[in-house]
Each structure stands twice: as structure tokens, then as C-alpha cells.
């Protein structure tokens, strides 16, 4: 579970073209096709977050 007091989180904004439901469905479909466990999903998302924080490949 994400500790909202530890990590800064900002909800997606549909008014800016951000579609949270589409993104969630796409991510879940990929994870289902890969048949990964919850612990592997955590590892994957932690890796993605580190890469975004370290290398900033996504323009925010």
C-alpha cells in the first residue's frame, strides 16, 4: 500500500487528456498476459518509479 504521507501523489486529470481508466486497463492487461505475481508487480513498479526519478524519461 502506498503511504500518501511518504510519496507525493497527484491524481490524473481528464481535463488535461489523462485517462486513468484506460491506463489502468492497459497495464492490467499486460500484467495478466505476463502472469506475474503481486510481488513481481511490486518489483516492476518500483523499478519503473526509480527509472522515472533517476532518469526522468517522462516529461511531467
**Per the principal axes of the C-alpha atoms, what is the gross shape?**
globular
Mean pLDDT, as a whole number? Answer: 84
Task: Kindly report the oligomeric state of this protein.
Answer: single chain
Radius of gyration: 13 Å
Low-confidence sequence ranges: none
Q: Termini distance?
A: 23 Å
Helix content: 55-70%
Contiguous helical run count: 2
Classification by helices and strands: mainly alpha
Q: SSE string, helix = H, strand = E?
A: HH
Strand content: under 5%
Main beta sheet:
none
Number of strands: 0
Care to describe what's here?
This protein has a domain of 36 residues. Helix content is 55%, strand content 0%. The chain contains two helices and no strands. The two termini are 23 Å apart.
Keywords, separated by commas or semicolons:
about 60 residues, mainly alpha, about 55% helix, 2 helices
What is the topology?
Layout: H1 20-34, H2 38-55
What can be said about this structure in brief?
Helices cover 55% and strands 0% of the residues. The chain contains two helices and no strands.
